[in-house]
Amino acid sequence: MKNNHLEPFKNLVEAFNALPSIGQKSAMKLAYHIVTQNSYEGIKLAHAIERAIESIQRCKKCNNLSEDELCAICSDENRDKTKVCIVESAKDILTIEQLGHYDGLYYVLSDVDDFDLMHLKDMLKDTKEVIFAFAPSIASDTLILFMESQLEDMNLKFTKIAQGVPTGISLDSVDTLSLVRALEDRVDI
């Protein structure tokens, strides 16, 4: 005999569990909290998710998340339009913006298969420097080389974010590739 008891609760647990970085135990805790402790927060969460899905779109210029045709960064006249940081996802923009140390523009290259060269070239028309902010990997290096070759006619300076040994980590905990790159990209003191 099939047990359909508490099917809505099971569905809620499954919905939480489908989200990135939420395992079965965390999903169960969240579902239990919302159902038994704070149903108002659950309703508020449901409405926030619904509003976000309905109102957030891709920026027409850089592919960032936006409520309007252009995102707040592309619309900001105070941003340095001579620098464009190319990232893998809009989530990377949020991370970099939290630092408060970058004042240029961005371009989200979320899917290499959908790479629109003309769209990117149009975005880069006033740019002098392209900064690649990809997670270090052989695939990322290959992508950077490919993009440089596609943009070589634009007379741009190409840079990528530094890589190496993270602060507070002992050398025996650093992977070989990161340690090699840290040695190769060492700086004068």
What's the short version?
This protein is an alpha/beta fold and 189 residues long. It is built from eight helices and six strands; from the N terminus they run αααββαβαβαβαβα. The strands form two sheets. Strands 4-3-5-6 form a four-stranded parallel sheet.
Structural summary, described in words:
The model has no long low-confidence stretch (mean pLDDT 89). The protein has 189 residues and is α/β, with parallel strands linked by helices. The protein is globular and about 65 Å long. The strands form two sheets. Strands 4-3-5-6 form a four-stranded parallel β-sheet. Strand 5 (129-133), helix 7 (138-151) and strand 6 (157-160) form a beta-alpha-beta unit. The chain has helices at residues 7-17, 24-37, 39-55, 72-75, 90-99, 117-123, 138-151, 176-184, and strands spanning 57-58, 65-66, 80-87, 104-108, 129-133, 157-160. It has two domains: 7-55, RecR Domain 1 (Helicase, Ruva Protein, domain 3), CATH 1.10.8; 78-183, Dna Topoisomerase Vi A Subunit, Chain: A, domain 2. It has eight helices and six strands, in the order H-H-H-E-E-H-E-H-E-H-E-H-E-H.
Throw out a few tags for this protein.
two-stranded antiparallel sheet, 14% strand, 4-stranded parallel beta sheet, alpha/beta, Dna Topoisomerase Vi A Subunit, Chain: A, domain 2, Helicase, Ruva Protein, domain 3, 8 helices
